[in-house]
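Reading a protein record of the kind used here takes only a little practice. The record below shows the convention in full:
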Amino acid sequence: MVLAGNATRIASVLAATSQAAAEEEELQLGVNGLIKLNIFGYTAWITTTHVNLLIVLVVICILALIANRKIKKMDEDSVPGPFLNIVETIVELIDSLTRSNMGEKHGGKFSNYIGTLFVYLVCANLAGLFGLRAPTADYGVPLGLALITFGIIHYNGFKYEKVGHITKLFKPAVLTPINIIGEIATPMSMSLRLFGNVMSGTVMLGLLYGLLPKLLKLFIWPAFGFLHAYFDVFSGAIQSYVFVMLTMVFTAQCFGEEN
């Protein structure tokens, strides 16, 4: 009886240990847990993704405050510096992009959201250049952004199309299942496209760095510059553009004749 009881306790301890090790190993697959939290009996983690998200947001806020302060100090005779020229170029580009894709009537209303989304995605995707893991390489981030876009699409759909936003799913009747699946699949396709491209670059660079000794990484890092230039800069900017473009196109479809 005693031996059986001890064996049972040992088995339970080993099972709990293996389960904890499995959870930790699962968490280590690309995302490192920093702080473990127990919320109503469930385990939650503060991970590197949350920290990197916060860093990106702080950097964007600081740049926005600097731009706001410099603009307020400008007068009619002042010549803007390089920083304000870059900010002005970005604002004009986003304003032109939204108006050309969403129409003159509605484009200006979405410039703030599209601009914020684009700047955030570009900064998040460029995080790898500074030794951070791109927040968009964690599926929760692209999915959250895609769900926000999904909500905006259907809010404007009901606002401008009224009941027609629902009835169009049944036209033609034979394609109703495909139409419904297509609507539901919108946030999944948008988020998976962004996540897959960013994650693939993160994994490939991680594997390359993982094959090298730590001391050698300090000397060979510049040799991987072209890979960072592609995965972090080129691919990151392209995926950011594709995400905001899909957001504008899907939303503009809801305006109908008013666009």
Residues 69 and 75 are 12 Å apart (CA to CA).
